[in-house]
Amino acid sequence: MAGSDEKILRYLGLAKRGRMLISGINTCTYAMSRGKVSLVILAEDISENSEKKILKEIRKNHTDFIRYGKKSDLSHAVGQEERSVFAITDDQFAKTILKEIMREIDRRRVCE
Fold first, then answer.
1. Beta strands 85-88; 39-42: pairing state
2. Phi and psi at residue 87, to the nearest 5°
3. Does this model's pTM top 0.90?
């Protein structure tokens, strides 16, 4: 795993410890409906049904989202079991994590 990936996973762990991250479809959906979510992170290997359900809520609530990482890696980073949906509830932390994810995606494109 590349250094940027590790940095992103550490940020997610820090967000969890700081109570700025929630996970799971139902929990994230509820938080979005209450206007508490700044960014949703969908694992790249999310199931089709889960993806349809969460994308419907993301559109309905006009929430920013990005696809990133495998659910096993993301779940492990935040101390959860096999979650595929994560939500950041702090605006500034969401911006920081999104910036790092975009940097990693750009780095991967250059390496291809």
1. antiparallel
2. -130, 135
3. yes
